């Protein structure tokens, strides 16, 4: 298919924390790349994923939720979300079905209006409220924000109306060649995805006081074949073993004990759940070793944030 018939472009997902942006993006591309949890601010950086079919390529930019930041990590997250608006051809504005418009929605609306980009409103979690409330939310948003191009009602978790979202996006993209080859699903490295999988399990298992102060670093990934030989350039095979050493970073000594748990049980559970997903990702056996380290107040330390990978990407 020639460039005059093929469509390709960039789309960002914008919204408040915990509205389902990462879940929707995973469903749109048909593969789990971004981690998800019920906790707000799960996504901390920009995550690029790629959907390609026979007549279009959509490059998605998942972003942290827009919120009032309380530390340098929060400021970085908000800058990351805002920064994507200049890079894209269209915006998916995610809102929970049944949302009452307040100051945060108006602030996001003002930001999106100024961007000049086509805005598609996605009302998510329609399975959690009645149809009347969903319709009322759509009407109120269209009245308050007349720049909205269209409204699509979805349940990202249950994959309801995902194809409608893809079709809405497809019609807005410019004609042109693809940006990535058809096999590309993400720019994220395996090491980065592994660290996020581990953080996801920690988010889901730990108590409320700890997760926002959690980060994960992967120190080593080494592939061994069935004879114990290593080759960093070979693709993993099912019988291979990937040795992974990773550290769970927390802010306080008291948090370290919570992450480890009594008799090491919490850290063991994090490892068990993470290893299952990592084996599915890498398509081989995994030997995962987790350690816990304390970096005091790392979320408010610019140097530590950079060392943990929270720094703006330059185009």
Give structural notes.
This protein is 33% helix and 23% strand. It is of the alpha/beta class and 315 residues long. It folds into two domains: 7-170, 3-Layer(aba) Sandwich (Rossmann fold); 190-307, 2-Layer Sandwich (GMP Synthetase, Chain A, domain 3). The chain is globular. The mean pLDDT is 86.
For the record, the CATH class of the largest domain is Alpha Beta
Strand percent estimate: 15-25%
Number of helices: 9
State the low-pLDDT regions, or none: none
Helicity, in percent?
A: 25-40%
Shape: globular
Based on the model shown, name its key terms.
alpha/beta, Rossmann fold, 315 residues, GMP Synthetase, Chain A, domain 3, globular, 6-stranded mixed sheet
Layout of secondary structure:
Blueprint: E1 7-15, H1 21-29, E2 47-52, E3 56-62, H2 72-83, E4 90-96, H3 103-115, E5 119-124, H4 131-144, E6 148-153, H5 162-170, H6 190-205, E7 215-224, E8 241-250, H7 253-260, H8 265-282, E9 285-294, H9 302-307
Parallel strand pairs: 1-3, 1-4, 4-5, 5-6, 8-9
Antiparallel strand pairs: 2-3, 7-8
Helix pairs in contact: 6-8
């Amino acid at each position: 298919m020639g460039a005059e018939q093929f469509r390709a472009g960039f789309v960002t997902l914008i919204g408040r924390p915990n509205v389902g942006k990462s879940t929707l993006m995973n469903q749109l591309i048909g593969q789990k790349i971004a981690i998800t949890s019920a906790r707000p601010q799960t996504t901390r950086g920009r995550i690029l994923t790629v959907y390609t079919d026979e007549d279009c390529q959509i490059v998605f930019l998942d972003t942290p939720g827009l919120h009032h930041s309380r530390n340098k990590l929060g400021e970085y997250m908000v800058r990351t979300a805002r920064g994507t608006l200049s890079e894209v051809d269209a915006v998916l504005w995610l809102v929970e079905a049944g949302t009452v418009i307040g100051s945060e929605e108006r602030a996001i609306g003002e930001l999106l209006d100024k961007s000049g980009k086509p805005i598609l409103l996605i009302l998510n979690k329609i399975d959690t409220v009645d149809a009347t409330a969903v319709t009322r939310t759509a009407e109120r948003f269209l009245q308050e924000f007349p720049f909205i191009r269209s409204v699509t009602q979805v349940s990202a978790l249950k994959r309801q109306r995902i194809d409608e979202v893809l079709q809405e996006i497809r019609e807005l993209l410019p004609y042109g060649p693809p940006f990535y080859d058809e096999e590309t699903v993400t720019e994220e490295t395996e090491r980065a995805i592994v660290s996020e999988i581990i953080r996801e399990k920690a988010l889901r298992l730990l108590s409320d006081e700890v997760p926002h102060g959690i980060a994960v670093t992967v120190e080593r990934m080494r592939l061994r074949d069935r004879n114990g030989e290593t080759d960093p350039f070979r693709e993993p095979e099912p019988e291979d073993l990937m040795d992974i050493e990773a550290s769970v970073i927390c802010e306080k000594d008291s948090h370290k004990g919570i992450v480890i748990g009594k008799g090491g049980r919490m850290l063991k559970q994090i490892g068990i759940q993470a290893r299952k997903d990592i084996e599915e990702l890498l398509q081989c056996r995994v030997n995962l070793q987790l350690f816990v380290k304390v970096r005091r107040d790392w979320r408010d330390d610019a140097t530590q944030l950079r060392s943990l990978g929270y720094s703006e990407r330059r185009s």
